[in-house]
């Protein structure tokens, strides 16, 4: 095989958010730390009767979660579930409540939002015409809201149904199931697992095709045979407990290896859907789709008992990137080839109802997935931490590299990496081949995971970077292309002057931002991600506020402030061999929230707090690039 933050002391509080030792102040600025888990919360059973939002039977055509938007052509969170009525297209209230919204929205078209109480709201979108219900009206479960339609951002008629808990969308499927109203297709439909089986048995008798576009722009059309094989893979994956994530990985692998065709030939002795070699089974077994899928997934019920190891046998597969997990099983000579197939795999699942099952633990899996980007920043103090403050830099480099690899960001911004030919070269070597250097200047560097990101365009042209020195301090920025989605980002590594000279610090930041915006203008649609030790916080002393003003005025926010979930907020940084210090932070990842959603924020403390890797903590964030890069233009 191959909510708006409180304003304390003026608008400055909005940006470089302090985590103050004084709990009362900290609580006024930042919500309490929450779990890093981003999976849906089905919630406890709500009062009253719940029912599906369509009167008749229907098909689920798109699940909740990250997907490539068919109209906007960007990767973003699909905040609900799409249902297509088979006959009766009447849309009704899923539960009793009060109408909060009834009208037209550009994206949602004709929509209704109902407050169902208990912090739960439901949305019904893309209806054919304006709803007969009005804002403030009390409705009962089953009250007619309208008719399924195709208004707003759609490619076809359907009902987009959302469940919103305390202001954030959650997966409607487990929620509705917990209320006794599973979204299983209505009275005449079976659950999604039976829909999968139906696809497998009927695809050969009906003319069906699916067309989708890979991340490299190539359009792919799949026929009956290929969709039947996809249904087999999905059925086996769900049976062995791989969940939707595992099914997507398997489909990506089979798409790359055979384009879902059961081939009787291949490289050397490779055969079948996954182009498995002789060690995976006999010729007949490898050309039997059910067997090929079973050995790909492996696990406790796998035919090969873990040798060769299938997906479920691979330790940490849920925290790997999807393509990375496929490669872990396939061990291809082209390790990054699988990622381009993710939109096609998801299109198969969305169009044919193959989703709907989640493996235990899927919701807590780490690692970035399609449409997400994990970014970390760390001042590793290889340059100015001598004199017994920390252990010698040579002793700390293996520990630093281990911590970075454990966190496994897609891109990391490092400061105080030392001279390029000594300390800098040592940390680059320690991180290779997991990470590759993108750009370096005066101890600032940006490194990236080459299985997920690239410094070249799809046509092979080098993307831009900048290096600069301002006020005696270096800085860098690099344009990176996500190999999975094709989107580009501009990531910086910044470290302005410390101390009370705020004017000099501001000059550094202004020039850095000017250069970064210049890169963005050459790569339209790129999101800007500023990262580094900014030596700035709020309120702190009165000498470190100008940088905050600069970013706030341009619409930027710290990721800590706007993250949906945060962990590790307790401390600021280390102080040599002493305990971690509390107080406001100076290490930040800063984004434009109009272009970027912050899913999680983590401050990662050393495992040995009496002998840490650095006197700073690593900050790691998971981002979703939710729109075009909207960073405000540079202004003095």
UniProtKB/TrEMBL annotation:
<dbReference type="Pfam" id="PF01551">
    <property type="entry name" value="Peptidase_M23"/>
</dbReference>
<dbReference type="GO" id="GO:0004222">
    <property type="term" value="F:metalloendopeptidase activity"/>
</dbReference>
<feature type="domain" description="Endonuclease/exonuclease/phosphatase">
    <location>
        <begin position="376"/>
        <end position="616"/>
    </location>
</feature>
<dbReference type="InterPro" id="IPR016047">
    <property type="entry name" value="M23ase_b-sheet_dom"/>
</dbReference>
<dbReference type="InterPro" id="IPR005135">
    <property type="entry name" value="Endo/exonuclease/phosphatase"/>
</dbReference>
<dbReference type="InterPro" id="IPR036691">
    <property type="entry name" value="Endo/exonu/phosph_ase_sf"/>
</dbReference>
<dbReference type="InterPro" id="IPR050570">
    <property type="entry name" value="Cell_wall_metabolism_enzyme"/>
</dbReference>
<dbReference type="InterPro" id="IPR011055">
    <property type="entry name" value="Dup_hybrid_motif"/>
</dbReference>
<keyword id="KW-0732">Signal</keyword>
<dbReference type="Pfam" id="PF03372">
    <property type="entry name" value="Exo_endo_phos"/>
</dbReference>
<protein>
    <submittedName>
        <fullName>Peptidoglycan DD-metalloendopeptidase family protein</fullName>
    </submittedName>
</protein>
<feature type="domain" description="M23ase beta-sheet core">
    <location>
        <begin position="77"/>
        <end position="172"/>
    </location>
</feature>
């Amino acid at each position: 095989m191959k909510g708006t933050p409180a304003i304390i002391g003026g608008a400055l509080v909005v940006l470089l958010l302090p985590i103050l030792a004084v709990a009362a102040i900290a609580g006024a600025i930042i919500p309490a730390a929450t779990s890093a888990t981003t999976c849906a919360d089905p919630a406890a059973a709500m009062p009253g009767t719940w029912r599906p939002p369509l009167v008749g039977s229907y098909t689920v055509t798109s699940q909740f979660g990250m997907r490539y938007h068919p109209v906007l052509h960007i990767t973003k969170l699909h905040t609900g579930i799409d249902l297509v009525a088979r006959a009766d297209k009447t849309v009704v209230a899923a539960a009793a409540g009060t109408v909060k919204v009834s009208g037209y929205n550009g994206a949602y078209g004709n929509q209704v939002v109902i407050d169902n109480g208990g912090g739960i709201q439901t949305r019904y979108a893309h209806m054919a015409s304006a709803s007969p219900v009005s804002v403030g009206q009390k409705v009962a479960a089953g009250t007619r809201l309208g008719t399924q339609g195709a208004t707003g951002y759609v490619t076809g008629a359907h009902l987009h149904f959302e469940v919103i808990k305390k202001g954030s969308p959650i997966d409607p499927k487990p929620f509705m199931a917990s209320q006794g109203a599973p979204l299983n297709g209505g009275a005449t439909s079976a659950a999604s697992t039976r829909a999968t089986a139906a696809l497998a048995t009927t695809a050969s008798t009906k003319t069906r095709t699916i067309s989708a576009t890979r991340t490299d722009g190539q359009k792919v059309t799949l026929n009956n045979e290929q969709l039947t094989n996809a249904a087999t893979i999905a059925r086996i994956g769900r049976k062995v407990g791989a969940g939707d994530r595992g099914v997507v990985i398997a489909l990506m692998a089979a798409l790359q290896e055979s384009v879902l065709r059961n081939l009787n030939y291949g490289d050397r002795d490779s055969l079948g859907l996954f182009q498995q070699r002789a060690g995976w089974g006999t010729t007949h077994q490898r050309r039997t789709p059910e067997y090929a899928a079973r050995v790909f997934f492996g696990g406790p019920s796998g035919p090969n008992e873990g040798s060769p190891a299938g997906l479920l046998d691979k330790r940490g597969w849920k925290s790997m990137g999807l393509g990375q997990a496929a490669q872990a099983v396939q061990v291809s000579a082209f390790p990054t080839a699988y990622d381009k197939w993710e939109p096609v795999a998801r299109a198969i699942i969305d169009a044919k109802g193959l989703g709907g099952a989640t493996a235990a633990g899927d919701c807590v899996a780490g690692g970035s997935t399609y449409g997400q980007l994990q970014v970390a920043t760390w001042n590793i103090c290889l340059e100015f931490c001598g004199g017994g403050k920390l252990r010698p830099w040579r002793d700390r480099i293996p520990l630093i590299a281990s911590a970075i690899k454990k966190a496994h960001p897609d891109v990391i911004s490092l400061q105080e990496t030392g001279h390029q030919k000594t300390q800098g070269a040592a940390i680059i070597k320690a991180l290779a081949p997991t990470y590759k250097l993108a750009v370096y200047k005066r101890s600032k560097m940006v490194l990236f995971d080459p299985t997920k990101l690239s410094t070249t365009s799809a046509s092979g042209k080098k993307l831009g970077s900048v290096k600069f020195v301002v006020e005696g301090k270096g800085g860098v920025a690099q344009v990176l292309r996500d190999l999975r989605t094709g989107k580009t980002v501009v990531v910086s590594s910044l470290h302005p002057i410390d101390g009370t000279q705020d004017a000099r610090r501001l000059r550094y930041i202004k020039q850095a931002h000017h250069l970064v915006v210049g890169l963005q203008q050459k790569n339209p649609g790129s999101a800007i991600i500023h990262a580094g030790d900014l030596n700035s916080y709020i309120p702190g002393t009165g000498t470190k506020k100008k940088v905050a003003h600069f970013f706030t005025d341009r619409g930027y926010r710290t990721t800590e402030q706007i993250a949906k979930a945060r962990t590790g907020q307790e401390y600021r940084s280390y102080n040599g061999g002493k305990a971690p210090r509390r107080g406001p932070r100076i290490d930040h990842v800063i984004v434009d929230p109009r272009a970027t959603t912050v899913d999680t924020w983590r401050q990662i403390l050393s495992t040995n707090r009496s002998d840490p890797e650095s006197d700073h903590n690593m900050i790691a964030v998971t981002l979703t690039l939710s729109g075009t890069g909207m960073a405000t233009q540079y202004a003095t």
